[in-house]
Amino acid sequence: MKLLYKPLSILFSVLGGLLAGTLFKQVWKRAAGQDDAPDADDANYTWRQVLIAAAVQGAIFGLVKAAVQRAGAQAVRKSTGRWPGDD
C-alpha cells in the first residue's frame, strides 16, 4: 500500500501546488486589483503589503495542501480499508 500511496501523494501534492498558485493569483487579483502579488524585495511596496500578500498566499497553500492530503488519505481508506500510515 505504501508503495502505491507515496508516488500518488507526490503527484497530488504537485497538482495541489499548481492549483494553490492559480487560486492565489485569482484571490490576489480580486482583493488587490493587481495581477501579481508584491515581491518582498520590491521597493515599491510597503512592509504591510508584502506581509499581507505572504500571509494570504501561505493560508491558501496550507489549505490546499491539507485538503489534498486528506482527500488522498480518504481515497486510500475507501479503496483499501486502511488509513495510510497505519501499519
Characterize the structure shown.
- It is a single chain.
- With 87 residues, the protein is mainly α.
- The protein has one domain (2-80).
- The chain is built from two helices and no strands.
- Helix 1 packs antiparallel against helix 2 (47-80).
- It is elongated, with a radius of gyration of 17 Å.
- The termini are close together.
Termini separation comes to 10 Å
Instruction: Give the biggest sheet.
Output: none
Structural class: mainly alpha
In which range does the helix fraction lie? over 70%
Shape: elongated
* Mean pLDDT across residues: 90
As a percent range, the share of strand residues is under 5%
| N-to-C order of helices and strands | HH
Q: How many β-strands, per DSSP?
A: 0
Rg calculated over all Cα atoms: 17 Å
Q: Any idea how many domains? A: 1
- Number of DSSP helical runs: 2
Q: pLDDT below 50 for ≥5 consecutive residues: which ranges?
A: none
Keywords: Membrane, Transmembrane, Transmembrane helix
Organism: Actinomadura namibiensis
Pfam families: DUF4235
Protein name: DUF4235 domain-containing protein
